Amino acid sequence: MSKASHSQSTHEATAGARASAPLAGRHALVTGGGRGIGYAIAGRLLREGASVTLLGRDAAVLDAAVAALAPQGTVGRQAADVADPASLQRAFADAARSFGTVHILVNNAGQARSERFDRTDAALWDTMLAVNLSGPFHCIQAALPGMLEAGWGRIVNVASTAGLAGYAYVSAYCAAKHGLVGLTRSLALEMAGKGITVNAVCPGYTDTDIVQDAVRNIVAKTGMDADQARARLAQRNPQGRLVQPEEVAHAVAWLCQPSAGAINGQAIPVDGGEIMVG
Description:
The chain is α/β, with parallel strands linked by helices and about 280 residues long. It has one domain (about 25-205, about 245-270): NAD(P)-binding Rossmann-like Domain (Rossmann fold), CATH 3.40.50.720. The protein has helices at about 5-20, 35-45, 60-70, 85-100, 120-150, 170-190, 210-220, 225-235, 245-255; strands spanning about 25-30, 50-55, 75-80, 105, 155-160, 195-205, 265-270. Strand 1, helix 2 and strand 2 form a beta-alpha-beta unit. The longest helix is centred in the middle third of the chain and has 29 residues, at about 120-150. It is globular and about 50 Å long.
């Protein structure tokens, strides 16, 4: 077989595999998709056959992510801020024009900042709620009409173990993530008879930029070195390690499967057993 023929056969086999994949014909939009957990989720959904739109604030980061992910499937990007409803509406409309109805929404974009409660000012409080709670609200409102028209949809909110338990020095973040879990549970009941499921995954400390920021904060405030700070965070996980973005992506992709249609209104910890939800 010639090199050209081999390349064509490989391409046809890959295309055939994508066409028979469980999410073939579905369009997924992942917020905060340019790096970290969002990037890992986008890659996993592409391998499951979905076309994927990455949404984020930094166009350069999104362009680099699209270039890296393109060999795995159909992927595009929209630059928008989840805290800006008007820009989100435009981004969702443009994404739908490119790849069709958004059938899968993964609300992954988030921010975390640490501060003592008595030093938490209104600006920090408002930012945590705007990004971590109001952002998913605006994204769901933009995506839901298309899902309802299609009679099928998957909404997965990337919350946190901070949405299931309290953590000191991140009261605003915890409040926002608890709110996101509450939104998940309430909306799941409203959508239960409409072919749309709404779930949350709640990662523990995960090896991402947010954890790197936490490490720098611990180093600055305690005098620990970076390795000691990372070990301190990893100790919260009974497995003694940081969660990997790909592990969170696996949980998200499972919730998006057609076969996961009975999983609804759940907040699933991905944390090595740190928090047991009964």
